[in-house]
Amino acid sequence: MSRxxxxxxxxxxxxxxxxxVATLVLTLLILGLGSLIVAHDRLLQSLGSWAHGDPVxxxxxxxDTQAALGxxxxxxxxxxxxxxTTPDGDLHVTIEQVDRGLDPAFLTALVHxxxx
Length: 116
What we know:
Blueprint: H1 16-51, E1 58-60, H2 64-68, E2 74-76, E3 92-102, E4 105-114
Antiparallel strand pairs: 1-2, 3-4
């Protein structure tokens, strides 16, 4: 005589309690990601007003003698003075060095300009 097959309760699937807990965890995860996205958008919107009005600093490198003596470069909020007259014709521009960084974001270039 054969016994009728009985179902094992552990292999039947997920219980209702497990489904409710999984749904709750996923809901909390989605709400957390949503609040991070909103905070990120607010930060990006305020970034323009935060940076607005900050002075732009110009770096004036030391002259050859000062550089040989170890003099540091000067920073100024005022742009460097331009020559009284601009030369006619083409200028020979050489980019000698470019420095970039991400934290904080910056880009500087050392440029040599010659009047041929």
